[in-house]
Specification:
With about 375 residues, the protein is α/β, with parallel strands linked by helices. The protein is about 55% helix and about 15% strand. It is built from 13 helices and eleven strands. Helix 3 runs antiparallel to helix 4 and helix 6 packs antiparallel against helix 7. It binds zinc ion.
C-alpha cells in the first residue's frame, strides 16, 4: 500500500500566474506510456500515425513531443478554468495534472450559477480552440508534405476534441456536470442539492464507462482501450463519490451545530484594551462587538491595520468596527453552507450568531468551524 501511496504523492512542478501546478508520480508512468504508444505507432505505421513510418529515434522524438503537447493542452484547459475563476473573483489553490486529465481546485464555491457556468465552460472552450488550432496546423503540415508532423498534429487535434466532448458529459465533477449543477442551482436555488444530483450523474456516467469498457473487451477484443475506459470510469466514480460522501456523513448542517461561544468586546473599549487583553487570549481574525449580549458590530484585525499604533489608546472599538449589518449575522438555524458563503462574501470572514430574542449566542470564523465528522473511505 505504501508503494501506491508513493505514486500518489504530489510534487509542484511550476507556478503559473501565482497558481501552483502539481503532478503526482503516476503522471510520469502515464507520460512514458503515452510516448511509447505514439512512438510505436510511427514505427509500425498504424492508423494513429496515419501510415507514416519512422525509424526508432525520430519516432520516439515525435512520441515525446506529441505527448508533451497532449499534456500541455490539458494544462491549458485547466488554466482557463482558473483564469475565468479569477475573473469571477475566485482564486485557485492549485492545478493538479493527474494521469487521466487535470483538476483545478478553486478556493471556494462560485457565488452564483452564472459564475459556475462560465468557469465550467471555460475548459472545454479552450480544448475546442486547441483542436481548431491543431487541425489548422495539420493542414499546413500536410500542404508542406511534412507527413509525420501532420500526423502528430492530428493526434493532438482529435485528443483535444475528445477532451472537450468527454468533459461535457453531464456528471459532476466533469465540466458538463458543473454546467448541469449550474442549471439545477439556478432552477432550485440550492447549491447543495444541485451538487448532490450532479455528482449522482457523475457516478452514473462512471458506471456506464466501466460497463462499456467490459463490453469493449468482450466484443472488440481491444484490451488497451477497454482497460482505459474502465480506469477512467473508476477514477470518475471515486471522484464523484468523494463529493457525495462527506455530504452524506457530515454531522453539521446548521450554524448552531458549528458555531463556537462568542468572544466579544465592549463597543466603548479602546483598541489598546482589545490588543492587550482580548487578542492574546483569543488569537482570532475577528471578534464580536457587543454590549449586554446585543451585537453592535464585528471587529476584524484587517480593519486595525491602517490605524497607527499611537492612536490605539484613544480610539474606541466602535469607531473602527464594522457596524452591524444584515451580512454580519445569522440565526442558529441558518444552513451552514449559506453561512459559509456569507462569510466569504461579507469581507469580514466571520459571522455573529443571534438567536430569536436578538441575543448574541455564538460566533463563526471562516476556516475555524468545528471539525466535521469524517467518514472513513
Ligand atoms: Zn475542465
Amino acid at each position: 500500500m505504501n508503494f501506491l501511496k508513493f505514486f500518489r504523492r504530489q510534487i509542484q512542478v511550476a507556478r503559473v500566474s501565482g497558481i501552483p501546478v502539481r503532478i503526482d508520480y503516476r503522471w510520469f508512468v502515464v507520460f512514458a506510456l503515452s510516448a511509447w504508444v505514439v512512438a510505436a505507432s510511427f514505427e509500425q505505421r498504424t492508423v494513429l500515425s496515419q501510415f507514416v513510418k519512422l525509424d526508432a529515434g525520430p519516432a520516439w522524438l515525435v512520441g515525446v513531443a506529441t505527448t508533451a503537447a497532449l499534456f500541455l493542452s490539458i494544462f491549458g484547459h485547466e488554466l482557463s478554468h482558473a483564469l475565468v475563476g479569477r475573473f469571477e473573483g475566485i482564486e485557485s489553490e492549485e492545478i493538479v495534472l493527474h494521469p487521466f486529465g487535470g483538476l483545478t481546485r478553486l478556493s471556494r464555491e462560485p457565488d452564483n450559477p452564472r459564475a459556475e457556468f462560465r468557469i465550467a465552460v471555460a475548459g472545454p472552450s479552450a480544448s475546442f480552440l486547441f483542436a481548431v488550432v491543431a487541425f489548422a496546423l495539420m493542414y499546413v503540415a500536410r500542404a508542406g508534405e511534412w507527413r509525420a508532423a501532420a500526423a502528430a498534429f492530428s493526434i493532438v487535434a482529435y485528443w483535444n476534441l475528445f477532451i472537450a466532448v468527454s468533459n461535457l458529459l453531464p456528471g459532476y465533477p466533469l465540466d458538463g456536470g458543473r454546467v448541469l449543477r449550474a442549471f439545477l442551482w439556478k432552477r432550485y436555488g440550492q447549491l447543495e442539492e444541485a451538487t448532490r444530483i450532479a455528482s449522482l450523474g457523475g457516478q452514473l456516467i462512471a458506471g456506464a464507462l466501466v460497463v462499456f469498457g467490459v463490453w469493449f473487451y468482450l466484443r472488440a477484443a481491444d484490451p488497451f482501450r477497454a482497460l482505459w475506459l474502465v480506469l477512467v470510469g473508476l477514477f470518475l466514480w471515486d471522484a464523484a463519490r468523494a463529493i457525495r460522501a462527506p455530504r452524506r456523513g457530515r454531522g453539521l448542517r446548521t450554524v448552531g451545530e458549528a458555531m463556537t461561544a462568542p468572544v466579544s468586546v465592549e463597543p466603548d473599549a479602546t483598541v489598546s484594551h482589545f490588543v492587550d487583553h482580548v487578542l492574546p487570549l483569543h488569537r482570532q481574525e475577528a471578534v464580536a462587538v457587543a454590549h449586554a449580549r446585543r451585537l453592535h458590530g464585528i471587529l476584524t484585525l484587517k480593519d486595525l491595520k491602517d490605524l497607527p499604533r499611537e492612536r490605539w489608546h484613544r480610539t474606541r472599538v466602535s469607531d473602527v468596527m464594522r457596524p452591524v449589518a444584515p451580512d454580519l449575522f445569522v440565526g442558529p438555524q441558518t444552513p451552514l453552507a449559506r453561512a459559509e458563503r456569507l462569510m466569504t462574501e461579507n469581507g469580514a470572514g466571520a459571522l455573529a450568531v443571534i438567536d430569536g430574542a436578538g441575543e448574541l449566542v455564538g460566533f463563526l470564523l471562516r476556516g475555524r468551524l468545528k471539525r466535521r465528522v469524517k467518514v472513513k473511505a
